[in-house]
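Tutorial, part two.
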Amino acid sequence: MADTTRPDTDPLAWIRSRSRWPVFAILLWLAALLPFWLFPTYLLLAREIAIAALFAISVDLILGYAGIVTLGHAMFFGLGAYTAGLLSARLGWGEPISGLLLAGALAGLVGFVVSFLIVRVQHLALIMVTLGLGLLTYELANALTWLTGGTDGLRGVSTWPIFNQFRFDLYGYTAYSYSLAVLFLGFLISRRIVNSSFGLALRGIRENVRRMPAIGSDHRWHLQKIYAISAAMAGVAGALLAQTTNTVALEVLSFQRSADVVVMLILGGTGRLYGAIIGAAIFLVARDQLAGINPQYWYLGIGLLLMVVVLFLPKGVLGGLSRLTGRPD
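Running the prediction step on this input gives:
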């Protein structure tokens, strides 16, 4: 008997449609290769954008897709950075790939433990809990001076060549290649997650968490899983920063870093993985240019840019582009 299922009534049709790669996505990743040839003097900035984009994607998984508002996700970013840094500075192990994996695993484990507390609160209480956890982690790292170096930073970090072949050069070719490759892998994993039945369940939780148990969805377990995954990805981003700069400072755990990544998502558009990448690029390029004009008051320009986007592009730059092109969100 012939299959008469219509595509628009197939429950998996939406997932299949979202799994296709649009032309915009292909052009975006090709554009990420341009700094190697057109802007070689900006490779260090491009490396920073790649790391920030990975961190922003990790936050978007819980904020944009699961509706978990956080102001303390730098806790996991810093945990990953210190894990990679301590492996090198204290244990003499500077192999980058294993350092990334260990940093991500430890951050994910801590994230899973913290998730038992996160799923118990909502709204303002959730914001306060995540903020409090971030501040506690920062002060703990500051107090453990013998381990973290405190305000002086962690010294003695040294990263070995990748696969014992590619050394980290002063110009940033290896660092950007490495960061871009990890970003692309993290993006693929995130894309697979959000374009699955699990991703649909997360959207349902974001829209109405009280209705999910009525359809048999264990919403708390879903939130715990995505929070642990997000924490692991943030830890990998932090480890990338430590390995490509060979420095780890308390700033990796600061509230400022947690706030900046939320600003990046607002600029690019939450609930869109590409919005995290575009938002990170806009924020860091704007910061670089504004700091060149006035190093002391560059955040004034960021504030004005944020206000313009919120007022005229409430769904971010990518949301505005979707409206212009007529593409659905």
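The chain is about 65% helix and 0% strand. In part three we will examine how such features are distributed along the chain.
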